[in-house]
Amino acid sequence: MLEAGSLAAASKVLDKENIDVILCDVKLPDGNGVDFLLQVKPKHPATEIILLTAYGNIPDGVQAMKNGAFDYITKGDDNDRIIPLLYRAIEKGQLHKKVAHLQQQLSHKYSFDTIIGDSNPIQQAIELAKKVAATDATVLLLGETGTGKEVFAQAIHNNSTRANKSFVAVNCSAFSKELLESELFGHKTGAFTGAIKDKKGLLEEANGGTIFLDEIGEMPVELQATLLRVLETGEFIKVGDTKTLKINIRIIAATNRDLQKEIETGHFRSDLFYRLSVFQIILPSLRERIKDIPALANHFAMVFAAKTNKPVPVLQKEYLEALQHYNWPGNIRELKNIIERSVILNDEQQLRVKNLPVELQAAHSQSLHSAFELAGVEKLHIQKVLNYTKGNKTEAARLMGIGLTTLYRKIEEYHLQ
């Protein structure tokens, strides 16, 4: 327990120590405890302050609570309350710290730094996302299924001025037209059969924050006009209501469909497309970022080893090569699932080709077969050139346009004369 005889002395203690609870007199030599709250709470939000006064009065008590006091009690009359109050204040302070820690972890989890990959396509997408995150612009994320569109949406939100507000995600393909309308816009009691009470929609839940509309290309045309109004005016009407609601949200949408083709077939409104695509980011497929596969695979191996209480396995070179020779129609999501399967089935310290599904093993065998075929062609060509130059390696290297050192290495590799 620490003591301070003045507000100035207390401020110095707070700058040096991590204080959970402060018992503070209202009247002190250099100021007023009620005003002191305004100095402490902004800098130390997790520190709770209980004010003590010899002569309690209602205006001071009200102002103290407005300024952030945990409680305001009269000395002498309320002595029996102090110990229980201290315990409750400590609990509240610890809860505040725990929440702050969880928020920090969540913020890190969905930061751009956690998006794995050094290849140019993914780095370009990250740079674009970082630039738009600081604005309030509507963003349209395009790319195949499993390329990480929701991860990007969350990272954009967490790096925006709305980071402390809600991030609400909804998959537009997961609901019928009626259910999606109710989920997004909410409804009034009696709006339809089963609407037994008022329901707040996801747009309203996201007020002040961000709503992520995944698979926007699946949204029924009838609802697209209502969403367009939200984008243009920030207003909508609940199902079964007559009152207009005003909201302030950022919309991030995503789709794996070609929306231009959807417009041509009448399945998507062109005016909504132009409003959504203020800022487009195309996320690359895993086929376009093969060099990132080892880093992604090692990351997922660590994650799933921890989840299954197994040692982190070493990924054999052949295992990684097999991953890089596969086509990845399911992109990162498919890679993640395959690594999880490998870790679960593996009983060794290494992940080997045999731990992969049959289709990946087949792709790896095919790639090896192709490599052997190419090697055979190269071996035959080098031998023909050497025969032509009557064994003159310098001339053979010149004719083939390769370095003499390379030719010697190839001769040794293919056991040529």
Describe it:
By secondary structure, this protein is of the alpha/beta class. It folds into four domains: 7-107, Response regulator (Rossmann fold, 3-Layer(aba) Sandwich); 116-282, Rossmann fold, CATH 3.40.50.300; 286-356, Helicase, Ruva Protein, domain 3; 366-413, Homeodomain-like (Arc Repressor Mutant, subunit A, Orthogonal Bundle), CATH 1.10.10. The chain has 17 helices and 14 strands. It has helices spanning 7-16, 33-43, 58-66, 79-109, 120-133, 149-158, 177-185, 202-205, 221-233, 259-264, 270-276, 293-307, 317-324, 331-345, 358-388, 393-400, 404-413, and strands at residues 21-25, 27-28, 31-32, 48-53, 71-74, 139-142, 167-171, 210-214, 235-237, 244-246, 250-255, 279-282, 314-315, 350-351. The strands form five sheets. It has a five-stranded parallel beta sheet. A three-stranded parallel beta sheet has the order 1-4-5. The protein has a two-stranded antiparallel ribbon with strand order 2-3. A hairpin with a 6-residue loop joins strand 9 and strand 10 (244-246). Helix 12 packs across helix 14 and helix 15 packs across helix 16 (393-400). The longest helix is centred in the first third of the chain and has 31 residues, at 79-109. It is extended and about 110 Å long. It starts with 6 loop residues before the first helix and ends with a helix.
Can you describe this structure in just a few lines?
This protein is α/β, with parallel strands linked by helices.
Q: What key attributes describe this structure?
A:
417 residues; alpha/beta; Rossmann fold; Helicase, Ruva Protein, domain 3; 4 domains; 5-stranded parallel sheet; 3-stranded parallel sheet; 14 strands; 51% helix
